[in-house]
Design a protein that fits this description.
The protein is mainly beta. The chain has six helices and 34 strands. The strands form six sheets. The protein has a 20-stranded mixed β-sheet that branches. A hairpin with an 8-residue loop joins strand 29 and strand 30. The N terminus is likely disordered.
């Protein structure tokens, strides 16, 4: 076993020991479920968990690549079960390589205690990081059998970070922090799987209205009798060796989820690209990551130009007329000659050819075109943005492209399962039954 694999195994074993000790021992769910709603003004995805003693509902922005859960502790954080994580403790070593100890120069309160473990919660919307106290408190979410929500499952000492109220800038109204689902030992998925000893997997299914996140293995059952875990195609999850967090210690890998795009096709025709941009270099630049905090897919400039040129040409062959750009979109079309189908607007399909046997992610009109007619603009716009020259990441697959696609992140085997659009199965990510108890 390679040294890095041994370290990873020992680290997770420590997490398993710590979290298993703090979970309720009387109830061991096989999986957990939380709801997701899309906040239209900000295009952010929100989930709700119960935290603290007594339990209160906490609204959080879903951050797929976030290192950990963080919340505002300055404003009305009241809990009898709050515990600051001490400097150089086992919990601190799970969360950070940083050995600095934090002190507080006012009376002790949540977020402000002496000799505590310091971390750096990050807001990717404003690209702001700040110092924060690592802490533990009760977290409770619903269990699931894959069909319905069941009884609540509780972790009594869930690791998270406090943050100042100022870090909430740019977040949806009502949000008091972010749920970090990233590839770390204290990310939300890792803590839940360790606490309840279920599979190190989680699945995300977003929509323009409501959606769902599962922690643990399937089934993932949606109305119309669709068991989405049976629809998955798999591709490896890649590790970016350089952190993409706002503040990090040298040698820390990225918590974001990267996949290997080998090529891009429009109408089954390969687009000519600089393929070196599709790889992650030794400095952590390039490659493709999946994001829930970027509303639309972002492409490096040369990739953007090549893909949009091919798309415009294929659309013209269908007699689809291009119209003036509507910010933030650069490529827009008249809806007059575009048929509406079950899979969205009838436009050229975009396909990401991925690593893995016959792994290709097809983006149909439902995930490629934004219909602006409800906002008074007679236009359908391609939901792809120009990311500029030399961005940190060459391709960022944004939230709009994820909607009504089930994505399963398997941390143990380092692979992504993706369903492609569920619309072809006559269901959506809004069709998980939250109304009945298992």
């Amino acid at each position: 076993m390679a040294t890095s694999s041994i370290i990873q195994f020992l680290s997770f074993s420590l997490l398993l020991f710590l979290c298993s000790s703090f979970a309720q021992t009387s109830f061991r769910p096989k999986a957990l479920v939380v709801p997701v709603t899309k906040h239209a003004p900000t295009l952010q995805y929100l989930t709700t968990i119960n935290q603290r003693t007594p339990l209160v509902p906490v609204s959080l922005v879903v951050h797929l690549g976030g290192e950990f859960l963080w919340v505002d502790c300055d404003n009305n954080y009241v809990s009898s079960s709050y515990r600051p994580v001490r400097c150089r403790s086992a919990q601190c070593s799970l969360a950070t390589k940083n050995t600095a100890c934090g002190d507080c120069f006012s009376g002790p309160r949540p977020g402000c205690n002496n000799n505590t473990c310091g971390v750096f919660p990050h807001n990717p919307i404003t690209r702001t990081s700040t110092s924060g106290e690592l802490a533990e408190d009760v977290v409770s979410v619903k269990s699931t059998n894959g069909f319905n929500p069941g009884k609540a499952a509780e972790v009594s000492r869930f690791i998270f970070s406090c943050a100042p109220t100022s870090l909430l800038e740019g977040l949806a109204n009502g949000a008091v922090g972010m749920a970090g689902l990233g590839r770390t030992r204290v990310g939300v998925p890792s803590q839940f799987s360790a606490a309840f000893s279920f599979h190190r997997k989680f699945a995300v299914c977003l929509s323009s209205s409501t959606g769902v996140i599962f922690f643990g293995d399937g089934p993932y059952h949606f109305l119309q009798n669709v068991e989405a875990s049976q629809l998955l195609t798999y591709t490896p999850l890649l590790i970016n060796p350089v952190s993409t967090a706002g503040v990090f210690t040298a040698g820390t890998p990225s918590a974001d989820y990267f996949i290997g795009v080998k090529s891009i096709q429009v109408e089954d025709k390969a687009v000519a690209l600089n393929t070196s941009l599709l790889k992650i270099d030794s400095q952590g630049n390039g490659g493709t990551k999946i994001s829930t905090v970027d509303p639309y897919t972002i492409l490096e400039t040369s990739i953007f130009k090549a893909v949009t040129k091919a798309f415009i040409k294929a659309a013209a062959a269908r007699n689809i007329t291009r119209v003036a750009a509507v910010k933030p979109f650069e490529v827009c079309f008249s809806p007059d000659n575009v048929l509406a189908t079950r899979l969205g607007a009838s436009v050229p399909w975009i396909t990401l050819v991925l690593q893995g046997q016959s792994a290709s992610w097809t983006i149909t009109g439902s995930n490629s075109m934004v219909d602006l007619r409800d906002s008074g603009k007679n236009a359908l716009c391609l939901a792809v943005l120009d990311g500029g020259v030399e961005p940190r990441t060459s391709i960022v697959i944004g939230g709009y492209q994820l909607e009504n696609n089930l994505l399963q992140f398997d941390l143990a085997t380092s692979r992504l399962g993706f369903s492609s659009t569920l619309l072809g199965r006559q269901t959506t990510c809004a069709n998980f039954n939250f109304t009945s108890n298992a």
